[in-house]
Amino acid sequence: MNIIRKKGGARYLNLQEPEKPRLYRDLFPYTSICRTTFDNILLAPRPSDKMYVTDTTFRDGQQARPPYTVKQVLKIYDFLYRLGGKTGLIAASEFFIYSPKDRKCVDACRARAYPFPKVTSWIRATKDDLKLVRDMEFDETGMLTSVSDYHIFLKLNKTRKQAMDMYVDLAAKALDWGIIPRCHFEDVTRADIYGFCLPLAQRLMELSRQSGMPVKIRLCDTMGYGVPWPGAALPRSVQRIVQTFIDEADVPGEWLEWHGHNDFHKVLVNGITAWLYGCGAVNGTLLGFGERTGNAPLEALLIEYISLTGDDGAADTTVISELAEYFEKELHYHIPHNYPFAGRDFNSTSAGVHVDGLEKNEEIYNIFDTKHLLNRPVPITITDKTGRSGVAYWLNTNLRLTEDKKVTKKHPAVGRIYDAIIAQYEGSNRTTSFSYEEMEDLAQRFMPELFATEFDHVKQLAGELAAQLIIRLAQHKDLLDFDASALARLDSFAEEYSFIQYLYLTDTRGRLKCATITDPQYKEKYQALPLDYDFSAREWFKIPMQTGDLHIMDVYQSQFTGKLVITVSCAVTNDQDDIVGVIGVDIQLEQLIKRAKALRKEVGTQDENDI
Question: What SUPFAM superfamilies does this protein map onto (predicted)?
Answer without folding.
Answer: Aldolase, Sensory domain-like
